[in-house]
Amino acid sequence: QSVLTQPPSVSAAPGQKVTISCSGSSSDIGSNYISWYHQLPGTAPKLLIYENNKRPSGIPDRFSGSKSGTSATLGITGLQTGDEAHYYCGTWDSSLTAYVFGTGTKVTVL
Amino acid sequence: QVQLVESGGGVVQPGRSLRLSCVASEITFSTHGMHWVRQAPGKGLEWVAVIWPDGSNKYYADSVKGRFTISRDNSKNTLYLQMSSLRAEDTAVYYCARNTGNHYFDYWGQGTLVTVSS
């Protein structure tokens, strides 16, 4: 089963900005909406961004999402220590009739 | 309180079977697709299976196809995962998640740990 490609890790100082890329193909990101999840250690994943760029209630506007072609990007501005977590992108693959997750990115606040 | 609660995890020998359950409380269940997602120790998220709201369609990851069966009972707001012929590589925390709109998961359970070991 294919997966979406993310960088293993990104880091920045508090207050700075990080971006996380998510690369896929025409049958997954290229054909469907992308969503993003973050996961704190020992807890369940939590929805961060849905339908490419929408934020659920309670998610601050420091988090943003975008999509172009077969790639997507999550941006986090004003980085805080509480943002240290693993981040995953995900979408439906119309060819595989399966959901696919990204490989995951660990965000570290320096 | 809005929640999904999984149960049924535990230690099981290779080749044996186990059934997981996920009960939905205070959220709409019967009109949403439901997924199982797992996470092996120290690893990323892996999608396992999905079932349509009325149970009419079910899809599985290649890694579990033919061994796992997803089902649901809308009268009980409960999702199931019947796992058979378990392997060491099935060891993971199993999460249930509710599908909403265009294939995103708005609610997740807390997870239940399945350990396959002799």
Largest inter-chain interface?
Answer: A-B, 27 and 25 residues
Shape of chain B: globular
Q: What's the tally of helices of chain B?
A: 0
Mean pLDDT of chain B: 96
Low-confidence stretches of chain B: none
Instruction: Sketch the major β-sheet of chain B.
Output: 7 strands, mixed
**Tally of extended strands of chain A?**
9
The major sheet of chain A is characterized as: 6 strands, mixed
- Oligomer type: heterodimer
- Beta-strand content bin of chain B: over 45%
Low-confidence stretches of chain A: none
Structural class of chain B: mainly beta
Task: Write up this protein.
The complex is a heterodimer of chains A (110) and B (118). Chain A has no helices and nine strands. In chain A, the strands form two sheets. In chain A, strands 1, 3, 4, 7, 8 and 9 form a six-stranded mixed sheet that branches. The N and C termini of chain A lie far apart (34 Å). The model of chain A has no long low-confidence stretch (mean pLDDT 96). With 118 residues, chain B is mainly β. Chain B is built from no helices and eleven strands. In chain B, strands 2, 4, 5, 6, 9, 10 and 11 form a seven-stranded mixed sheet that branches. In chain B, strands 1-3-8-7 form a four-stranded antiparallel sheet, with no helix packed on it. The interface between A and B is medium-sized, with 27 and 25 residues.
Main features:
heterodimer, A: mainly beta, six-stranded mixed sheet, three-stranded antiparallel sheet, globular, B: 118 residues, mainly beta, seven-stranded mixed sheet, four-stranded antiparallel sheet
